[in-house]
Amino acid sequence: MRELEWEGMGVKVDGQQLHHLRFADDIVLITPCIRQAERMLADFDRGCGNVGLQLNLNGTNISECSSYVYLGREVNMANDLGWTAA
Q1: pLDDT tens for the 86 residues of the chain, in order
Q2: What is the distance between the alpha carbons of residues 12 and 58, in angstroms, rounded to a whole number?
Q3: Residue ranges of the Reverse transcriptase domain (predicted)?
Q4: Cβ atoms of 28 and 44 closer than 8 Å
Q5: Contact call for residues 70 and 62 (beta carbons, < 8 A)
Q6: I need a labelling partner for 65 at 20 to 30 A (CA). Which of 18, 33, 53, 76 fits?
């Protein structure tokens, strides 16, 4: 993850650039457009390959949404990605 060059990608939250959330073997890529999502997914896949890992495309969910539940909390894109009670 440290080697991925995602500077300026993602969205701003409280003045900080946020482009992904991760926990254990899960990752959520956060982007404002499909073009960034495609690039970030390709970069992530390449980075995984560099360390001998492979993405499980059968277990990969790609979707466009304004909010979703992550680690039991709702992430709401309409409210600057603020955490809200789920």
Answers
A1: 667 888 888 887 777 788 888 888 888 888 888 899 899 999 999 998 999 999 888 888 888 877 778 778 777 666 555 544 55
A2: 30
A3: 1-75
A4: no
A5: no
A6: 53
